[in-house]
Amino acid sequence: MTFNVEKIRQDFPILQRKVNGYPLVYFDNAATSQKPQAVIDCMVDYYSHYNANIHRGVHTLSQEATDAYEAARRKIQKHFQILHPEEVIFTSGTTHGINLVAHGFANFLKKGDEVLVSALEHHSNIVPWQMLCEKTGAILKVIPMNEAGELVMDAFEALLSEKTQLVFINHVSNALGTINPIAEIIDKAHAKGAAVLVDGAQSCAHEKPNLAELDVDFYVTSAHKMCGPTGVGILYGKKQWLEKLPPYQGGGEMIKEVTFEKTTYAELPHKFEAGTPNICGGIAFGAAVDYLNSIGFDEIEAYEKELLHYATQELLKIEGLKIYGTSKKKTSVVSFNIKDIHPYDIGTIVDKLGIAVRTGHHCAQPVMQFYKIPGTVRASFSFYNTKEEIDKLVEAVKKAKSMLS
Amino acid sequence: MSISQIQEEIIEEFSLFDDWMDKYEHLIEMGKSLPIIEENLKTEDKLIKGCQSKVWLHAELKEGKVVYTADSDAIITKGIIAVLIRVFSHQAPEHIVEANTQFIDEIGLKEHLSPTRANGLVSMIKQMKLYAVAFQAQIDN
Question: Which domains does chain A have, with CATH numbers?
């Protein structure tokens, strides 16, 4: 199948709209992806035809909703190549999943234990571990990065020891797009007896991970990064870990038996799914996974690589433009600045021309501190973007440069 | 001139541009003429904290009038604060406290009022008014 971007663009109604009088050019895909009609229809269909609370009612609607929700769980299980469906915990998103694991690890850590995080992390990936370390007396250590925005693997190995209990790493850096060598990190951490949690929020829209083969202990991601709705995501955990971890929130659904003396917790995955979940979101997450697979991840990866290469080449023709994050292994993200111009100013001007980019520190202040910059302009591309749109970005950046210099 | 007279003047000035680009060029020019805060006053407590660009704002009371100086690391932000300083600086605190800021809409900079522009107009206006309130209290005592 040849990659027909014009046909794909028709699946996304939002791409038809204009912003500030110009056709929208959406290059903020690393923040959230746009939604195809198939996902939107799935949500409308749920609320129009079988909205009901799940896992409790004996009535038909409740059973239909439960079936659809559990079918979505199995789709997601299959997509991420997870061994058992009960290892897929629906969450409200990546941050929720991280906090769930961090909360549970408070029971396993003691003073002097160590937790490793990378210098490339998003704030949501740093703060929960700082809180965990404050609570337990464990020590948070940071795997450093180099000028290209890659993790320094020698330093990682030097930091690893028998004291290391947990390594936390994003698969892809949100600020720079660097793809981290997670397979190697997992193997090396396991060799020292440490568990590994991978944040897949920035990678799951670009490649299909094989979690069973990776042998990762925990994996978290959000549906909205991969064409699904906001407010839903998953935590994958190896069964033996999930059984050990205490429940995060108390409530309905997560219990087996309640008396005032004692509550028995439900089996996996319900132990971690207290309360009425985002039913519609979960089902639509399944629809998003179906949609992406219908396009094909190999095709997506190849096409996005082409976009990244083209954007890098064209943007670098602008004098004074510097790209941050130059690892050979990158997703389709270009983070840049122009000499003596604040990224906020560039973002404001290109927005006026209908182009959505992200400006600022991308919630990754430590990365910005490393480069000693206040922030960057970040253009992140998806498979529904085109080279013509990149041309528009280049023209807009040139215009901004001439206005702002 | 009173605050509302200056606002009228600015509205008229911006109405000459029909194209957003000219409007922004004008804003950028205004940013370049901003009465810059002295380097030694660019301290943490003068910083209006936000997610995007940095803004330092300083105010003094001179002969019963508030005099503002400011700076920012982003030029469009500087332009916005230059507009505000032109409106509020050298005015009596009570007039600053009472002033409405409707004129922002009329000059077409409304998008900077959005709460997502963390360093937008809202927090700057709030900080300017806070200074005025403090000076007002000082005068009343």
Answer: 5-30+297-404 (3.90.1150.10), 40-293 (3.40.640.10)
